[in-house]
Specification:
Helix content is about 25%, strand content about 20%. It is of the alpha+beta class. It is elongated and about 55 Å long.
Amino acid sequence: MATPAPYNQPVPELPEVETIARGVHQRVLHAQILSAWFSRYREPMKTPLRQQQNALTGAWFLSVRRVGKHIVCDLATQPPTPDSAPTHQWIVHLGMTGRLVVTHADQPIVPHTHARLTLHDGREIRFVDARRFGRLELLDLRKQPAFRGPGSEPMTIDAHDFAGLFQSRKVAIKAALLNQTLLHGVGNIYADESLFRAGIRPRRLAASLTRAQLERLRVSLQQVLTHAIALGGSSVSDYVDANGVRGFFQLEHCVYARQGMPCRICGQPIQRIVLAGRGTHFCRQCQR
């Protein structure tokens, strides 16, 4: 059985997953998988091990991209051409402590490595997950629809659609932001940071927000996510990128994990409450 996760351990969110997906894409585009090895543990395998091995062995990477908090690898059974369409998708969810790194095959295999894809040039893609809350899934697009994620994409959603998600919901706006069936990819860190920048308290009912406030929140969310991606995400726990390098956005957090510290705007101490089961950070002075 997987070890229980500590309370409120940060989970990789959209910027971290985007950073990893971009890094893997740059390193494995059009590479061929010669073999696939998986550990004996059942937890990471959303699709049976043998089915993943059979589909991955011999496949070529067409692209690696993010959908919500998932890393989607588009694969082809034939060498890539400009008009190649994927026949399979290998989908990686990092869970709480998952890592997806590209390394040389002669590098030491660290504990808790659950997947190793050997590429034609001697490199490997390795999935490492100490707590085994991550998931590995294989879709055969000749028989199944492509993966689309559970909700709307926060980086591209427009003002009308964003307001439509929240304006009638009688739940705290922080809880609504964490609902992956509404917006997929937003988690605790970036919900707190976006609400601070928008000047909105996390306990405010979503339905009580005006269209102007919702638009301010949408813009703040997209700005925060864009800036976090530029800085490689937030490394506040196990997160590293595809090269094993930590991110830097945690150095610019305004509220997350800064309880008791002075607000960067007004100097009042940052507060921490538990909302929707998650540690929630905000400034009483700057957020209304």
